[in-house]
Amino acid sequence: MAATIQQQHIYKINGDLAVNRLGYGGMQLTGPGVWGDVADRDNAKKVLQAAVAAGVNFIDTAEAYGPKFNEALIAEALYPYKEDLVIATKGGFGRSGPNKWTPNGNPAFITENIEGSLQRLKTDRIDLWQLHRFDPNVPVEETLAPVTAAVKAGKIRYVGLSEVTIEQIEQAAKIVPIVSVQNLYNLGNRQWENIVDYTASKGMAFIPWFPLASGPESMAGKIGAIAKAHNATTAQIALAWLLKRSANILLIPGTSSVKHLQENMDAAGIELTDEEFDALSQ
């Protein structure tokens, strides 16, 4: 059922790499504070395998998740990969402990991230490599130099950015083609509204992180009524709203539960009316 639903929501990254718009984000499959290995590795592998079986063919991870543990887990669970499976990863964040994240745009560190990701993911080419953050202490031209080199060498297929402004997107695009942007965005937090519209106008994918937040308590009654009308959960309505918000949005909700995974997948089958969408958008 879920796989059939998914076929109704296809997006082509850079116009040629077809993915289902309801993907999966691997960040939760790590230890507390996104630090260390996941507690129940067998369950984590089952979740990843269930995601692919249900129709997911876009999985988002990062060198910094663990760090390193999440990428290795994905390979352990899914390698050899299905032919249409697209794995996106990220680099450029240093980790010193649980919930500690430090932008690191040093070219040597970026090179290490790319080479390490290739090895951990057991692949000779990363489908989508994303710069986790701009490092204010390193010119982006220097940060992206090894990325450009990896693209030319065939080690990276496409390049994306995370948590950036329009100015930063345009700055990076002068160095290497940018096909996607991953910023914080959800029903309750729409500070990057302009980036959604900008990426849509430029033919780029927009990948909201933390997509399941459903809004402030003041919206609870409104969301609850719409969820009830669709026999859906609040989280499913939040995902359905994102799918309707813009056709370039790719969703990567994460979970460590197979049951919750299926609930997320089923959100692809919820078609909000224009009236419901507008009510939620106010």
Automatic annotation (TrEMBL):
One of its GO terms (cellular component) is cytoplasm. InterPro entries: AKR, Aldo-Keto_reductase, NAD(P)_OxRdtase_dom_sf, NADP_OxRdtase_dom. GO terms for molecular function: oxidoreductase activity. It comes from the Bacteria. Signal peptide: none annotated. This is Aldo/keto reductase. Residues 21-280 form the NADP-dependent oxidoreductase domain. It holds the Pfam family Aldo_ket_red. Keywords: Oxidoreductase.
